[in-house]
Amino acid sequence: MKILHLSITLAGMMVLVFSFVLPAFAEQPLLDYYNNSELVLVGKVISLSQVQSTIPSSEPNQTHYDIQVEQYYKNPQSAKLITVYGFAKGIYYSSDPTYDVGDRVFLYINKENGHYQIQPHSLRLHNNCDARPLIPMPSLPFEPPIISMPAFGRLFTFSDSHGNEKTTFAVGEDVNIKFNAENYFPVVKHAGIELSVMTENNTKLVFTDKKENITIPACNGNVPVSWSFRPETPGQYSALVNATGGLDFGRTEVFYSEPSIGNGFMVSENSIDAHVKTIDSLSPLKQFKSGIATKDISCNNELQLVIKAEDKYPACVKPSSIKKLVSLHWALEPVNELTVEKFKDTYKVGEKIDFVLKFKGFLGCGYPSFIVKNAGNKTIWESPTVLMLCDPDTGYGENKWKFGELYNLMINQTGSYAMNISVSDKTIGKEFFVIH
Asked: How many alpha carbons fall within 13 Å on the CB side of residue 288?
């Protein structure tokens, strides 16, 4: 079997996650086959006959094919029936296949001596699925623009020994990793799939294993591959998969090598994360299951409500732990909240403007900023920049300011005004009037 070399690139997936995009094939065989052909098409053989050779050849005969065209992929023609010539029946060539009536074929074609000749690497398709993935280009000049990509399945799942899917495990607990090996080509894909489990920011390899001789069917083929791994230390883990193998072109096989794709999971000291405290009497989960809306669930003992990333259930945790839980993908990042209280609709000329500002969330080194504009959208006052010595990794918390204690602002001109109030990533606009 002749082996040709091709590298297929899948991108968009992370190393912690990923979505399929069109492969990048620059200067690789499939692109060469396409560029070196005058016509590229998929169609059906409706008749054939043995004829005298139409090109100079050591063989006296060729096969004459009538092809009913299903789709042109290069230099589309108006004709739906095209005559092409290939090598004579009964003569074996390792990369120049012959076909039978009824075959669905993908053909690279050039014109020689006034006749269309089938080029090497053309192939018989054993299915009716889309042949477009064999064209290694995101779009062709005569195709409509791509509006969206197709949806693809979930590649990774992590589960415990009971089959429960989750993303947080305990030290010493079995982690079952399942990867769905997929194939969107119209030809069979042979694969060797290697799993590597990394920790410490992908610097330490803790597990590796390769599954060989996996055959993935053509046309949206999907074969699950599984491993079991038992972590010994807590932390964030990445499961990375590399696939290599060949695309079956019949009498030839095109080699491919895919870059790593993967996903991640977290391992804690024990099965109940040390950062989380359960409130037995009125736990957030009991409140949630009783019908209380998530936003109305209350937490006791100065704990803060978060939503678990794994199952979207509510949990009450220490505010100081939220940033860590978010970084470990245990909890979804809370939405910062900014509220303004006691802001008046009307102030008198010379009256000191005062109100209360409250912020709940990740403030970091943020500090409130204020801009006042008049009816003509001209800035008449702006708070000065405040330089602070602070820890940018300050955790989740609640902050409160009285504007009158920060600034002594009075407006001496009647009219309508607007104040923009900003803290961190939140901004609120308040309109007001100044009267005599």
From this structure: 16
Res 214 pLDDT > 70 = yes
User: What is the distance, to the nearest Å, from the Cα of residue 180 to the centroid of all Cα atoms in its chain?
Assistant: 15
Cβ(370)–Cβ(421) below 8 Å: yes
DSSP 308: B
Architecture of domain 156-268: Distorted Sandwich (2.70)
CA 298 remoteness from chain centre: 35
CATH architecture of the domain formed by 338-435: Sandwich (2.60)
pLDDT 10s digits, 216-254: 998 878 899 999 999 999 888 988 888 888 888 877 777
Contact 271, 278 (CB under 8 A): no
The structure tokens 């500090």 sit at 367
CATH topology of domain 22-134: OB fold (Dihydrolipoamide Acetyltransferase, E2P) (2.40.50)
Q: In what order do the strands lie in the sheet with 346-348?
A: 346-348, 426-435, 415-423, 369-374, 379-382
Place of tokens 């969206």: 148
Provide φ and ψ at 191, rounded to 5°: -140, 150
Residue 155 pLDDT exceeds 90 = no
Nearest CA among 274, 285, 251 for reference residue 97:
251
